[in-house]
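tokens incoming
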């Protein structure tokens, strides 16, 4: 980011310290609309990212749900803002970007999956593509609904260790057992254990 852009953001910080919550929300909506309706260089996107992220601070969760939904499927979405939204404690805010945004890296998804609620895990389990490092945490920490959702997700890569855990859980969860059986990527050496779980 250029020195001019950093100077602009410092001025914004000073201004926002004196802005009421209602005015901050109005500014957030205006900046988001401006960003979503334009085409910008990477440098300009970085400035928008810094501005929008700052404007989200101190805004009530219910007001951030719309922003999260709008940015979730946007190609080239402001990455820092998406990360901030994905870390929100309210799954209604974090859910859309956790499930749909390509701006989130695997390391961040792992961190969210390790520390946040089952609602957060459920959203991650619905992603179009899920790396096995992320799936491992979903299977380890997830409740039955999370495990079923990620197992049914054909775009989720599942490691051998996670398959072993799912097969173990399938002994007491017949719905999960059926979903595991429909996977085409079960390691051959685990198939006999699955058959035992289905018996």
């Amino acid at each position: 980011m250029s020195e001019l852009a950093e100077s602009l953001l410092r001025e914004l910080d000073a201004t926002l310290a004196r802005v009421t919550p209602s005015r901050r929300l109005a500014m957030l909506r205006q900046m988001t609309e401006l960003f979503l309706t334009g085409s910008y260089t990477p440098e300009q996107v970085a400035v928008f990212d810094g501005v929008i992220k700052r404007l989200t601070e101190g805004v009530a969760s219910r007001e951030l749900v719309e922003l999260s939904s709008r940015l979730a499927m946007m190609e080239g979405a402001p990455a820092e803002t998406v990360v901030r939204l994905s870390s929100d404690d309210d799954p209604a805010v974090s859910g859309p970007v956790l499930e749909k945004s390509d701006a989130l890296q695997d390391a961040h998804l792992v961190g969210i999956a390790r520390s946040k609620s089952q609602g957060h895990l459920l959203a991650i389990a619905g992603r179009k593509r899920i790396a096995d490092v992320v799936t491992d945490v979903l299977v380890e920490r997830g409740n039955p609904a999370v495990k079923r959702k990620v197992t049914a997700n054909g775009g989720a890569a599942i490691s051998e260790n996670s398959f072993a855990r799912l097969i173990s859980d399938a002994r007491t969860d017949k719905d999960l057992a059926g979903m595991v059986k429909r996977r085409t990527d079960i390691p051959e050496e685990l198939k006999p254990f699955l058959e035992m779980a289905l018996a």
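note: The chain is about 70% helix and 0% strand.
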